[in-house]
Design brief:
The chain is of the alpha+beta class and 476 residues long. The protein has four domains: 20-132 and 461-475, no CATH class; 139-150 and 235-320 and 405-440, Nucleotidyltransferase, domain 5 (2-Layer Sandwich), CATH 3.30.420; 153-228; 324-397, no CATH class. It contains 16 helices and 13 strands. One of its GO terms (molecular function) is DNA binding.
């Protein structure tokens, strides 16, 4: 092997560094993890075992287990079994833990039993980012993304899916019963083995039907008419034309440094009810009196935008294009101009649509307007197939109109949203792999997501300030 770089012989004696500290450089991210956890008040955060018991076998300090997990998620090692192996062979982890090697069950139980405290650690790091002045623009982008749960699609049932599966089993049973009758008419030497196989299949299908009937009882008792057998909190959700069983993760991302300011794991597939909640969480985390939020059309809901307005939060959410009139080539509601002084609408033909009555629909107070001159209007075919064109107006419609004007004056806002909030989701999903979550139930999944978000934010801040700069900030 001439003219290649040569390694040393395995039998050659070597003088290794005298201490583990010599293996870890001054700028190694593992030093950031060590300083960060040592500065936390684990008792105040609510970690179990932070105060040792007077009797019994000594336990691992929660700081050690927290360091293991943060290191694991920073290095894309979320599995407790893999972390157990790494603690036994990884020099960085040996340095971080003082050569302690907890078993995988101890590591997994720590994450399961300290979900709320782990979420608190994530919030505390966001608070540090705020103190360092990393949220300078007071603008966040909000979005949600579906993450797969450990629950397989075949282990999730809705009413339609259950009915379809029961019909398939009934059809199969009837088909095997017919085949069983035919087998009885054949020679005994052929009929008996065949009948035994068919009967075995029928019994298996009947057992499956009994299981489905038990699931049907659970389904009827469930508030949202869904049952997941592996992870009870996971739900079937639509994503890009297909469906997954998982969770809807909401994030609010700072537009200046793309740090995740706030996040929340939900098992509701729709984003429509999340805008004001995420905006308020973001404002609290940023400790800012003023805040602007931008989100896509999926967040447009009148009540949520009103809630943001009442909280003093400026929202940028485009209105969905759901007008059936425009799809049919007729005037949509935007073609009708509202005159606030007269409380009436002016139609494209120049006629006034006056107020007629007010009613409450789905909790919203709506005013109705129309004109009595529609029947003789030359533009009626372009306007409505009904007797007259009726326009309805929400009592707080002025807030929605003001928001649309803001969007018109900020044409780049949706591009800012896209380049801000979609990249973190792509990064997190790449880190987590195809299976995404490893834990079950909302509590465990929330802890797992908080560790991923903390790792993401740590990497971002180390990129911005450098490892040495972040360690100085943590120790200050």
């Amino acid at each position: 092997m001439k003219r290649f770089i040569q390694g040393e012989h395995r039998g050659q004696g070597t003088f290794l560094p005298e201490s583990l500290d010599d293996y870890v450089t001054d700028t190694n991210p593992v030093r950031v993890v060590d300083v960060f956890v040592d500065e936390l008040d684990l008792v105040k955060l609510g970690f179990e075992g932070a105060i040792p018991a007077d009797t019994g076998r000594p336990a691992y300090h929660p700081a050690i287990l927290l360091k293991i997990y943060i290191y694991g998620y920073l290095n894309r090692i979320p599995s407790s079994r893999r972390l157990e192996r790494e603690a036994q062979r990884n020099v960085e982890l040996m340095w971080l833990t003082g050569r302690l090697m907890p078993d995988f069950k101890t590591i997994a139980n720590f994450r399961k039993d300290n979900s709320k405290a782990i979420r608190g650690v994530c919030r505390q790091f966001v608070g540090l980012c705020q103190q360092l002045g990393l949220f300078g623009e007071n603008l966040v982008a909000i979005d949600g993304s579906k993450f797969k749960a450990v629950n397989n699609r075949d282990r999730n049932f809705t009413s339609a899916k259950l009915k379809r599966r029961m019909e398939e089993i009934e059809s199969s049973i009837n088909r095997y019963l017919t085949a069983l009758d035919e087998a009885d008419r054949q020679e005994p030497s052929i009929a008996q083995p065949k009948a035994g196989r068919l009967q075995e299949k029928i019994d298996k299908l009947k057992a499956q039907m009994k299981e489905l009937q038990d699931i049907e009882i659970q389904l009827n008792e469930s508030p949202d008419k869904q049952v997941s057998l592996t992870d009870p909190d996971a739900r079937s959700m639509m994503t890009r034309g297909t469906g997954i069983v998982g969770y809807n993760v909401q994030t609010a991302v700072d537009t200046q440094h793309h740090l995740i300011v706030a996040h929340e794991v939900t098992n509701v597939g729709s984003d429509r009810d999340q805008l004001s909640s995420m905006a308020k969480q973001a404002r609290e985390a940023m400790a800012s009196e003023t805040l602007s939020v931008v989100a896509d059309r999926g967040y447009f809901k009148s009540e949520e935008i009103l809630a943001c307005h009442d909280a003093g939060i400026i929202a940028y959410v485009p209105k969905p294009m759901t007008s059936g009139a425009k799809a049919d080539g007729r005037f949509n509601n935007d073609a009708f101009i509202y005159d606030a002084a007269k409380n009436e609408y002016i139609c494209p033909a120049g006629e006034a649509l006056i107020w007629r009555y007010t009613n409450v629909e789905k909790g919203l107070t709506l005013h109705r307007y129309w004109s009595s001159k529609c029947r003789g209007c030359a533009m009626k075919p372009q306007c409505t197939p009904s007797t007259e064109r009726r326009v309805r107006r929400w009592e707080h419609e002025a807030i929605l109109e003001e928001m649309q004007n803001r969007l018109s004056n900020a044409p780049d806002m949706m591009r800012v949203r896209k380049r801000t909030v979609e990249h973190p989701f792509g990064t997190l999903k790449q880190w987590m792999g195809a299976t995404h979550f490893l834990t079950r139930k909302l509590n465990g999944v929330s802890a797992e997501m908080s560790l991923n978000v903390l790792a993401y934010n740590l990497k971002r801040v180390m990129k911005i300030l450098g490892t040495s700069g972040l360690m100085k900030a943590l120790s200050a």
